[in-house]
Predict the structure of UbiA-like protein EboC.
Amino acid sequence: MARKLTVYLRLMRPANIVTSVADVLAGIAIAGYFYHLTFNAISFYPVILLCLSTIGLYGGGIVFNDVFDAELDKVERPERAIPSGLVSLREATFLGIFLLLWGIGFAFSYSNHAGVLAVAIAFAALLYNKVSKHYAFVGPLNMGICRGLNLLLGISISVPMLMDYYYLAAVPVIYIFSITMISQGEVHGGSKRNLYIGGLLYAVVLLTIAYFIVIQGRSEAFIFLLPFTFLIYQPLWFAIKNPIGPNIGKAVKAGVISLILMDAAWAASFGAFWAAIFIACLLPVSRQFAKVFAVT
């Protein structure tokens, strides 16, 4: 049983799931929920529901990535759980369905707005895994939409704030678009063109967050934004100098895990500094998972 659970976790990419929880917590911070939060079970109940929702949605989406890539992985990544025979295609499919339904169920248990967003995330994840990831432009855009909707899932803790800040979903869309473009050369090596485009899009994201930090007068948020900048650009620079598969893989891994610091910067820029610290503390958790389980 323990061995099977480990295999399931391997399919779900727990290091990545931690970043999806950070997205939702950032959204909740943007919605201003942490301003008046009292430390009791009732206050944290909506936060827990939305975090459980994103765990299921992201985990299910990742599992279906391997389900739809099972035949290709036999050639390109035979070490993955399905082609290596550690788990059957049928088992992985049922796990993916269970996780997506888990995510949708927890979202609807909070509100209809959250539930609709969860359905949209599940649909976008399946669309990416089955169809759009095979297209150079549409695939990265689709993956970015998944993350943007995930941020909105957190903001949906307050419907009025969701109406006010829905456009912020564009930032994770741009960021994940850049990571997904970079990752296209992860197996066989990539072109410097994609890496430069990724670096330019990173800059757009950083400048956008910096703008909100300045206009909201929350200079303390730079405590999170500056290390985020370093963590994403350092491996990208090495990949640009030598765009081989392993270097690109490291840049992608850093980009995914460093999302946590971006989320912390969002939280701090909206005045939820203690929530930002908690989000940032998820970074070593994600990194520890990344040492045991694959990120890409």
